[in-house]
Structures are given as C-alpha cells and as structure tokens.
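An instance noted here:
***
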Amino acid sequence: MKTGADREIVTVYPYRSACPSSVWRSLITDAESELTFAGYTNYFLWLDHSNLAHALTRKARAGVAVRFLLGDPDADLTRRREAVEQTALTVSTRIRITLEHLNRLSDVGGIQARFSDHEGHISLSVFRFDDQMLVTPHLANLVGHDSPMLHLRRLQDDGMFDRFATHVETLWEEGRPIDTPGMGMLSEP
C-alpha cells in the first residue's frame, strides 16, 4: 500500500509502446471534462488508436474540452530535435500529419490546438484525461515510443499530477493558436 507522494503513480511502463491500447481507450472513453494531448507531435495517437477522430468528435460534442498542444513544424527547436533523432519520419512530418488529422476536425466545436515553442515541451509529453494522465519523459535521442511512461492519478494537492498539470497549463498559455495556410484555425474559447 502506497502512503507517500508516490501514491499518485498508478503504474509505470519502461516504454510508452508497452502501455496497452485498452488503457488509452478507457482513459479517453471515461473522460467527462478534459482531454489534453500535449505531446510534441501526437503523431502516434492517430496510428495506435483506431477511430480516434470519431471518439474526439463525440467527446467534444458532449462538452468535453479537447486540446492538442503541438510543436511548430517550422521552428528551429523542431529542426534541432530532428538532428538528434535522425529518423526517416522527421519530427516536422509527424507534426504535419497530426495537423492534417486535426484539420479534418476543424468543423467540430470544442477541439482546440496550439503550437508550443517552449524548450520544455519537446522533452516531455503529457496526456491528461480528467484526473488521470500519462506522462512520457523523452530520453536522449530516443523517440517517444522508446521512452518510459508513467500513469498518474490525482490524489492530492501539489502532488506529481498537479506539477505536470501546471507544466502543461503554462505551455498552453504561452502557446499560440494554430492558423496555418490550408489548415484553418481550430476553435479557441
């Protein structure tokens, strides 16, 4: 039985890719007020979670706030990360694929997206589902699926959950609405 600060840790995965898709599906399905996807590319979501667009549309229409925080595909920070990762499917390409998927949802009210230019965003992905979240600290030159992941549940004020939530809120506030040629602007409150 956990009694200290670690009691907010539900489980850990040595790799993000080790987290079962059923965990993601239940977190998305059970969310009643907030879904925040603050990965730098969020690319894997569209591949790993069939029918994600339909689920997000349903959630947004039910009043759930759906937010995406992405890196800017044209930013120097993105280019520097590409040099570190050295993968054929570049960071900017992965972001653009997410933008393409989000553009298809641009007529759905309640789905917001912003670009983040903050250095602290590229090394930490946070996915929030009401009072639970999945957190991936990116290691060295590894891509997201090769980095570890924590599943957290909010159980106290100023605990681990709140610290990561505050980090994401800071990035969101500093972010800028996505308005790119050919993509349109996703809704803003």
In short: Residues 33 and 161 are 16 Å apart (CA to CA). The chain has a mean pLDDT of 88. The two ends are 42 Å apart (CA to CA). The helical segments are 21-30, 43-48, 52-61, 76-85, 91-103, 119-122, 160-174.
